[in-house]
């Protein structure tokens, strides 16, 4: 019970983890909310290994790029269109300091980005695509 309370408090104290999704301009970004990490993994042979840093994401010119500071495997990435249809969904893995770029064919509208990894957490956010520019919104 204490461990569950501690994990919950850590997620709240860290203020709902966020990643930055950048559009064409550096001042257009969104903090994608969720809970990522905040616990220490323990095994029989290794104690005190910290969760990997959360990935960062950018969307520019119909390319979704995911930036990994630390290696993460089995990260589910999903993009949902304004009607609730899944535009992209795949499990990906990235190494230390790597980038995975995913071309997306998207029309004007607001899309939802979902990042999920069973051991580390979930992150969500929205970005809007309209006409010739991309706009990121909260």
Integer-rounded radius of gyration: 16 Å
Q: Distance between the terminal alpha carbons, to the nearest Å?
A: 34 Å
Q: What order do the helices and strands follow? A: HEEEEEEEEEEEEE
Q: Describe the sheet with the most strands.
A: 6 strands, antiparallel
Helix content: under 10%
Low-pLDDT runs of 5+ residues are 4-29, 40-45
Q: What's the domain count?
A: 1
- Strand percentage: over 45%
Secondary structure: number of strands: 13
CATH class: Mainly Beta
* CATH domain fold name: Immunoglobulin-like
Number of helices: 1
Shape: globular
> Which secondary-structure class do the elements indicate?
mainly beta
What is the name of the CATH architecture? Answer: Sandwich
Mind explaining what this structure looks like?
With 138 residues, the chain is mainly beta. It has a single domain (17-33, 52-136), classed as Immunoglobulin-like (Sandwich), CATH 2.60.40.3080. The chain is built from one helix and 13 strands, in the order H-E-E-E-E-E-E-E-E-E-E-E-E-E. It has one helix at 2-13, and strands spanning 20-22, 29-31, 33-36, 40-42, 47-50, 56-60, 63-68, 72-80, 86-94, 98-103, 109-117, 121-130, 133-136. Strands 3, 8, 9, 11, 12 and 13 form a six-stranded antiparallel β-sheet that branches. Mean pLDDT is 74; it is low at 4-29 and 40-45.
């Amino acid at each position: 019970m204490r461990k569950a309370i501690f994990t919950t408090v850590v997620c709240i104290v860290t203020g709902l983890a966020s990643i930055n999704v950048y559009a064409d301009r550096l001042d257009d970004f969104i903090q994608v909310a969720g809970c990522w990490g905040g616990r220490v993994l323990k095994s029989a042979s290794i104690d005190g290994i910290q969760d990997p840093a959360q990935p960062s994401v950018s969307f520019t010119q119909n390319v979704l790029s995911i930036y990994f500071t630390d290696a993460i495997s089995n990260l589910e990435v999903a993009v949902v269109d304004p009607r609730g249809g899944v535009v992209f969904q795949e499990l990906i893995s990235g190494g230390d300091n790597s980038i995975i770029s995913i071309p997306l064919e998207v029309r004007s509208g607001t899309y939802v980005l979902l990042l999920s990894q069973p051991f580390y957490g979930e992150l969500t956010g929205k970005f809007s695509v309209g006409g010739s520019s991309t706009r990121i919104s909260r």
